[in-house]
Structures are given as structure tokens and as C-alpha cells.
Amino acid sequence: MERLRAAVAGLAVVAAVFGGLVAIRVVTRFLRAAVWFAETAATLAFALLLGYLAYRVLWGESDDPRRH
Questions:
Q1: What's the CA gap between 26 and 31, in Å, rounded?
Q2: Residues 33-50: tens digit of each pLDDT
Q3: Has this prediction a pTM greater than 0.70?
Q4: CA–CA separation, 64 and 66 (whole Å)
């Protein structure tokens, strides 16, 4: 009975270590994807801001309501 209990405990340790490594891999891949998405969204927002500013400068209009 003790041998069976030791074997089950050994398998539990193997499952915990292997499962832990798999869980770490899943979490790191999720975080990498989240960072990539945030970086892409921030780059798009920055490009839109620069495009808007270029449009306003090249169009020659002001945001000043007194000039309309």
C-alpha cells in the first residue's frame, strides 16, 4: 500500500511539474500576444494622430473658433 501511495505521489509531482511548465508557457504566450496587440494599437493611434496633425497643417485650418 505504501508503494502504491509513493507511486501516486510521484505521478502527482510529475503532473505538477509538467503542468506548471505548460501553464507558464501558456501564460507567457498570452502576455506576448497582449503586448503585441497593445503595441499595434498604440502605433496605430500614434499614426492616426500624426496623420490628423499633418492634415490640419497642410489644409491650413486652425482650431481657433475666432478665425472661422
A1: 9
A2: 999 999 999 999 999 999
A3: no
A4: 5
